[in-house]
Amino acid sequence: MDLDNNLKSVKHKIVILSGKGGVGKSTVATQIALSLKQQGLKVGVLDVDLCGPSIPRMLNVEDKDIHQSSQGWVPVYPDPSQTLAVMSIAFLLNKKDDPVVWRGPKKNAMIKQFLSDVVWGDLDYLIIDTPPGTSDEHITVVEGLQGYNPDGAVLVTTPQAVAVGDVRRELTFCRKTKLPVLGVVENMSGFVCPHCAECSNVFSKGGGEALAREFNIPFLGCVPLDPQLSQCLENGQSFVEAFSSSPSAQILNKIAETLHQRTAMNGSIS
Amino acid sequence: MSEKPENAPEHCPGTESEDAGKSSACQGCPNQNICSSAKPKGPDPDLAVIQERLSSVKHKILVLSGKGGVGKSTVTSMLARGLALDDNLQVGILDVDICGPSIPRVMGLEGEQVHQSGSGWSPVYVEDNLGVMSAGFLLSSPDDAIIWRGPKKNGLIKQFLRDVDWEDTNYLVIDTPPGTSDEHLSVVQYLQHAVIDGAVIVTTPQEVSLMDVRKEINFCKKVKLPIIGVIENMSGFICPSCKNESQIFPPTTGGAEKMAEDMKVPFLGKLPLDPRIGKCCDEGTSFFEEFPDSPAVTSYQQIIKDIPDNLLFGNQTKDLLHMYLTFIPLFTKSFFTSTIFKGYSSG
To answer: Which controlled-vocabulary keywords does the entry list (chain A) (predicted)?
Structure first.
């Protein structure tokens, strides 16, 4: 496998992880990617959630197909500027409702192919979105990135104890696989009622921050629940661009900036 | 044509093939050992053991969703707790989410351990009539991660099904991780002789969630798992201060009800997003006991009331019944259903 050629031209690799499902891994992955793109960087998004790929819809490239070139698979570009590249299993399915009923080894083979065969070109960032858990997909991605100096993982959680409990396990996963942790994002923290402007903590509050403090890892920020954000993801719009003044977008932009600063140092060391 | 088991992985060479157990598609299939050994081929001997073990469990319900974080574990715990409110029913929860077990916390059982007895593993009991089994009970600290690939997860699931002593149980509610992969295939495969009544599918209202759930429904159809119905969770949030409703997760494509209609599966109901449910789950307390008058409890009770109907009749029979009731108004509904019910419950 010439994992070499295709991943070598990617400067920074960030893995988005969470032990818990539905906490907003794909949301954070897409919005960070869009925000970095807005800063003029070249970004790729790799979706290794094979059974439930959400990235294509969130980036409005649901019906696109993948083309083969002599160097490998050409990723999908949502706009002509080609500063955002996307790869997901959804592009390989005939019908979008087709389930991918695969056991681990087959998923691993697919992920290895994603890591080695996609012609990303010169990228500043590759953001890798993962399914929940600490199993096949995660082990394979981390193994595949070994030797390519991955910058680390961003852990996403929601504030409730049930979610934080699963994210603690993900942290253990990062420790065991020696993947550095770039920080924790607390998503869906607080909802401001559009009728009375009262802020309710729908899924409690502060769990992510407390976790970061307890394990002495950087806390990247709280992203409040915002129906406009859900709406943008449904329609495949860029939330950080369309609602740049909303508190959620500002936090997401700030998170992207922080990640950019932190990983830029990693680049200079290597 | 060589023979393929129903739940075989894609590209299975067939159990009679020379490549059985050796081709790349066989990697991770729980039957690989049997296929690759030179012995005469037969079905997995554990399947009969599982069937025997679970013969004392009347109904087995799977809680599924393609999407994570939509409330599978919450719904599982609420269904089980709701069913267990009836002292005459014995209820069990089996958590096959090996890498992210939430059930122990949601049921207030964190830190509990599994005990072994002569008859197998004993579930941990929340109430006299509500037992729980989860991978979470096998971990020594809340930070411990189970970093396992598929085959090891399958091994543990098989052990759960084969070795846990549920005694006489009316309902076993099985909570699953998101997706359509190892855990789901294994449960369906191992329970093929023990018969699963069907799957309850949980989703949230947004399309991002529904698109994964459609895959899950197609998975059920593929493995011939009956669908009891779809539940829409987190549908609408009522502000505790002004009582106005907001759609935090907007149903941009019509929500779960329309999806169920399009996919021709029953719709069981909508559950409101109530922060108090999340709080109860975090604390491991029973929402039914803490807030018996809340709208969410009413919705859950309605769903729980409907589930046995769907189990008893199956959907086709239920449709027939509806037709019957529409076309023969001479029969009063109560007379008709009561006789049917009597017939079934005595049988």
So the answer is: 4Fe-4S, ATP-binding, Cytoplasm, Iron, Iron-sulfur, Metal-binding, Nucleotide-binding
For residues B21 and B62, membership in a common domain is answered with no
Encoded tokens for B130: 């509500």
User: Does B71 show up as a binding residue in the annotation?
Assistant: yes
Strands (E), A168-270: 181-192, 199-200, 219-225
Helix (H) or strand (E) holding B267, with range, is strand B267-270
* Residue B12 known to bind ligand: yes
Q: Count the domains in chain B.
A: 2
Give the model's pLDDT for residue A1: 47
Where residue B240 sits, what CATH number does that domain have?
3.40.50.300
Q: Distance between CA atoms of B311 and B197, rounded to whole angstroms?
A: 6
Residues B242 and B221 in one domain: yes
Interface predicted TM-score (ipTM) of this complex, two decimals? 0.91
Report pLDDT for B327: 54
The per-residue pLDDT string of chain B (347 residues; one tens digit each, 9 = 90 and over) reads 346 776 777 788 777 676 777 788 888 787 787 777 655 556 789 999 999 999 999 999 999 999 999 999 999 999 999 999 999 999 999 999 999 999 999 999 999 999 998 999 999 999 999 999 999 999 988 889 999 999 999 999 999 999 999 999 999 999 999 999 999 999 999 999 998 999 999 999 999 999 999 999 999 999 999 999 999 999 999 888 888 889 999 999 999 999 999 999 999 999 999 999 999 999 999 999 999 999 999 999 999 998 877 775 444 444 555 555 555 444 444 544 554 444 444 43
- Distance of alpha carbon B163 from alpha carbon B30, whole angstroms: 17
Taking contacts as CB-CB distances below 8 angstroms, the residues of chain B near A160 are: 278, 281-282
**B105 and B169 belong to one structural domain:** yes
Residue window 229-288, chain B: list those with CB within 8 Å of chain A: 237, 239-242, 244, 246-250, 252-253, 273, 275, 278-279, 281-283
Residue B336 lies in a domain: no
Residue B235 sits in the same domain as residue B258: yes
Whether residue B14 lies within 8 A of chain A, CB to CB, comes out as no
Instruction: Indicate whether B288 belongs to any domain.
Output: yes
Q: Which domains does chain A have, with CATH numbers?
A: 3-269 (3.40.50.300)
As given in the structure block, the two tokens for residue B126 are 């929340």
Query: What tokens does B272 get?
Result: 């409101």
Interchain proximity B282–A20, CB inside 8 Å: no
Q: Does B339 reside within a domain?
A: no
Q: Please tell me whether residues B224 and B125 are part of one structural domain.
A: yes
A:44-73 residues touching chain B, CB 8 A cutoff:
50-52, 54, 57-58
Distance between CA A44 and CA A33 in Å, rounded?
7
Q: Which of B147, B181, B239 sits opposite A139 (nearest CB)?
A: B147
User: Is residue B323, in this structure, part of any structural domain at all?
Assistant: no
Which CA distances in Å does B99 have to A184, A226, B71, B108, B125?
A: 20, 29, 16, 19, 22
Distance in Å, alpha carbon of A77 to nearest chain B alpha carbon: 20
User: Mapping DSSP to helix (H, G, I), strand (E, B) and coil, where does residue A258 land?
Assistant: helix
Q: Summarize pLDDT for B257-311 with one digit per residue, the tens.
A: 999 999 999 999 999 999 999 999 999 999 999 999 999 999 999 999 988 777 7
Q: What domain range includes position B5? A: 1-42
Out of A168, A196, A234, closest to residue B208 by CB: A234
Same domain, B156 and B266: yes
How far is CA A120 from each of CA A44, A85, A151, rounded to the nearest angstrom? 7, 7, 17
pLDDT score of B346: 44
Q: Examine the domain organization and report whether B38 and B135 are in the same domain.
A: no
Note whether B277 and B287 are within 8 A (CB). yes
